[in-house]
């Protein structure tokens, strides 16, 4: 078993004004020739090309990321089983998402580089549905249903020495509260950041007021930061302002590239915010952002620019 890294996200935030997350995984894997078109999305690379995952992690570390997120956003053991893997192999692939990130950090850190945290990515139940539900929140389980869904992945990541978790792209507050309760009750000694997807700059896709969601997660002592991801860059300042008024937790944001996705043609086109990161980052920091990174269609160059803007 790979041993846990010595630094926590809480410790990292206590020593730096702004900490950089990483950026998109799937589109970077595609540049390495990985086919991400199946329901497993980027998770398939744990089997087909783990070296590509290592290369992507390394590229983000070189760009300035000090928080790496495991390639487990859509890596549920049941989904691997449904795709044809034996259960033991499916469990190993989830663990591999942690191992690849942790080993990448250790290899990179041998030259005395800055401390890095690896956060286990916990995508929503909607991502498992593979129909875009993580952006709509059009699903619902009871608390035990959510716990039963998330428990196997969290257990495997925990067994693989992950102690920090990224509960990310979350469209429903009830699901987030269930996951945080699961961490509290069954995985003592862990920490988490919570990142919501949005229906608009002030609401989750399920209709919850963003400020209310922030207040709710602040009640959990394991939460070390809260914010938004997988959102348009133009929404971030207003979202952070609302969060800042609702909680004293460090805030985070890792929006999309600024390009616009057409679900009919499944293509991306230039958007109004694509070249606005340099202009917007000072606003985000003024609004309280302490963790910054990128989501869909971002790349190591996105993080390089963030590093320059926050130096």
From TrEMBL:
Keyword Metal-binding recorded: yes
One Gene Ontology molecular-function label: S-adenosylmethionine-homocysteine S-methyltransferase activity
Needed co-factor(s): Zn(2+)
Chain residues that bind Zn(2+): 230, 295-296
Alphabetic keyword roster: Metal-binding, Methyltransferase, Transferase, Zinc
One GO BP: S-methylmethionine cycle
One family name in Pfam for this protein: S-methyl_trans
Chain ranges of the Hcy-binding domain: 7-310
Enzyme Commission no: 2.1.1.10
InterPro entries: HCY_dom, HCY_dom_sf, Hcy_S-methyltransferase
Protein name: Homocysteine S-methyltransferase
Origin species: Luteococcus japonicus LSP_Lj1
